[in-house]
Amino acid sequence: MHIFLCEDSIDGIFTGIYDAWASRYGHKNIKLCINDTITYELFSEYITVTPDSEKSEKVGRTIIARLGMEVYQDILQAVLAHDDKKKNEHPDKADCIYRTLLYGFSLADGHRILQALGNPYIARVFELSRSTGNEAHHLLGFLRFQELENGVLFSTIHPKNQVISVLAEHFTDRLPQEHFMIYDATHQIAAIHKAGSGYFLTDASNLNPDVITRLSPAEKEYQKLWCGFFDSIAIEARKNPKLQSQNIPKRFWKDTVELASGK
């Protein structure tokens, strides 16, 4: 077995797909794995994949041309998902995506490939894509910006999946004339947007916590007013913590001003 070890990123997995296809080893003799989750097997050859943006773009263009933009978006969401299933229960994320594309490319019309849920690889890709899509949808509603002393709008999120690019794209469109930064504390990356331009992703593992806690006087006042309003409209007899947790899952509370204290 020839096992291609991929970085857990769009460029990493797409480059792995490109290299695996071009290897001519035969699809049955190939497997793709995320390089930090591999359990080494005897009698297998391990090939480390170096992410290559040109190869990744070629794979992306092929998916769009052969399977359509909707499938491409679903595949991207699957790539960005956190695969928390045990490997002995489900095949690796990268390999599932590879097998799904192989099946799709074999069809005369692969635009509805992700409806073939009887195929375990496709079912897994569908599940991963839905997980990312659902979390991004939640965060588009729950994400809160705070104004820092320097006027930058700042938000911290703790997502399971790598949804920051989806959020950054949305808020770049909604807030084109604002300087803002979205910090993904789980994956230690940040999306930075400069007013009047696009956004870019950057490593945020060395982010200074002191800077991002310096709120503007106006922000402090608005937070005080909002929390006061939140408390004033609450009806003690109608408190329903279970329903509240269903509407806003508890893992989002730490990033929500009025719920951060555990109310």
| Overall morphology | elongated
Q: Would you list the SSEs in sequence order as H and E?
A: EHEEHHHHEEHEEEHH
How many alpha or pi helices?
8
Secondary structure: helix percent: 40-55%
Low-confidence stretches: none
Biggest sheet details: 5 strands, mixed
DSSP summary, beta strand count: 8
What's the alpha carbon Rg, rounded to whole Å? Answer: 22 Å
Q: What is the beta-strand fraction? A: 5-15%
Strand arrangement across the biggest beta sheet: 4-5-6-7-8
Number of domains: 2
The chain-level mean pLDDT equals: 88
Report the end-to-end length measured between terminal Cα atoms: 54 Å
Protein name: TIGR03915 family putative DNA repair protein
Domain DUF4130: 92-258
Organism: Roseburia amylophila
InterPro entries: DNA_repair_put, DUF4130
Overview of this protein structure:
The chain is α/β, with parallel strands linked by helices. It folds into 2 domains: 2-136, no CATH class; 144-259, no CATH class. 42% of the residues lie in helices and 14% in strands. The chain is built from 8 helices and 8 strands. It has helices spanning 10-22, 53-67, 69-80, 93-105, 120-142, 164-174, 217-232, 241-247; strands at 2-6, 30-34, 45-48, 146-147, 153-157, 180-184, 189-193, 199-203. A 5-stranded mixed β-sheet has the order 4-5-6-7-8, with helices on one face. Strand 5 (153-157), helix 6 (164-174) and strand 6 form a beta-alpha-beta unit. Helix 2 (53-67) packs across helix 3 (69-80), helix 3 (69-80) packs across helix 5 and helix 4 crosses helix 5 (120-142). The longest helix has 23 residues, at 120-142. The model has no long low-confidence stretch (mean pLDDT 88). Pfam families: DUF4130. Residues 92-258 form the DUF4130 domain. This is TIGR03915 family putative DNA repair protein.
